[in-house]
Design brief:
- With 284 residues, this protein is mainly α.
- Helices cover 69% and strands 0% of the residues.
- The chain has eleven helices and no strands.
- The protein is globular, with a radius of gyration of 19 Å.
- The protein starts with a helix and ends in a 7-residue tail after the last helix.
């Protein structure tokens, strides 16, 4: 029954005779690749983070760092899963590709800067490098194809005004913090709730840069409530997984009050956006 409902949902645009703005097959194939990569990395890093000290592209310790990165990948698994399961329109997730490009570019830069920290004799290290070298090229290509297949953007729904304004306000300090951490991972990283190496500081900065970019694109680009479902569900997932870290890794985390407050604020924004967006979910 669930499969039939999903197929019916996907078929709705064709039944209406409106092909403009549909998700192209090549885009969907790329999202499948991202789903698999995100799920494999997320499940491994978040649930068995201690293994990342010896069985990852570079040695990640303490374990809370691996779990942090895993939380980002698991949030990405939710995003790609929702797109594949429910999205029939490009605009349903068009706020995400720029954020993905920012993350991939940041992680590629971190890999190049700290190439001596990577295990180049380990085959999966090359998978990491090739993915983050390829995504910054693949994303603009796929976005350009999608935009050519899309129609004009609809008028902005006034119900989203508060969400858009708050997203823009929150995104600015998030982006500034991410830039600062990437530029000065030692000086800024010493104030982090758990130990960061320069490489890990730049990787952590990449994930915050992703969500800052996503919030900025939502602030400027959201038009219909349904378009908020996938980005803010992704943000909510990330926040919940990160807020569990002090409980899962109490020996690694200290002085996290300010960090927890910030993540709770992000979670509240995500839940507020979903409260507005979910009644419009049939328009995904």
């Amino acid at each position: 029954m669930a499969t039939a409902s999903m197929q019916s949902h996907r078929a709705r645009p064709q039944a209406n005779g409106d092909e403009r703005g549909r998700v192209l097959p090549l885009t969907r194939a790329g999202i499948w690749v991202l789903l698999v990569l995100a799920a494999l990395n997320g499940l491994f890093l978040y649930f068995v983070p201690a293994q990342a000290e010896t069985h990852y592209a570079w040695s990640i310790k303490p374990s809370v760092n691996a779990a942090f990165i895993g939380a980002g990948f698991l949030a990405g698994t939710v995003a790609t899963g929702l797109v594949l399961a429910y999205a029939t329109r490009w605009r349903s997730f068009s706020t995400l590709p720029i954020a993905l490009w920012v993350l991939a570019t940041t992680l590629l830069a971190a890999t190049i800067i700290h190439n001596d920290r990577f295990r180049w004799a380990y085959p999966l290290t090359w998978v990491w490098a090739l993915v983050y070298a390829g995504v910054p090229i693949a994303v603009p290509f796929l976005v350009a194809r999608q935009r050519r297949a899309g129609g004009a953007a609809p008028e902005a729904d006034p119900r989203l005004r508060t969400v858009r304004v708050l997203s823009g306000i929150v995104a600015v300090p998030l982006a500034v913090g991410a830039i600062a951490l990437f530029a000065a991972p030692i000086d800024v990283g010493q104030h982090w709730p758990w130990p960061l190496t320069p490489l890990l500081g730049r990787v952590v900065a990449g994930w915050y840069a992703l969500f800052a970019t996503m919030l900025l694109t939502c602030a400027f680009g959201l038009r219909r409530p349904a378009e908020a479902i996938i980005p803010y569900a992704t943000l909510a997932t990330w926040c919940v997984l990160l807020l569990a870290l002090p409980l899962l890794h109490p020996n690694d985390v200290s002085g996290a009050g300010w960090w927890i407050a910030g993540m709770v604020a992000l979670l509240a924004l995500a839940l507020w956006a979903l409260r507005i967006a979910l009644p419009d979910r049939d328009r995904l």
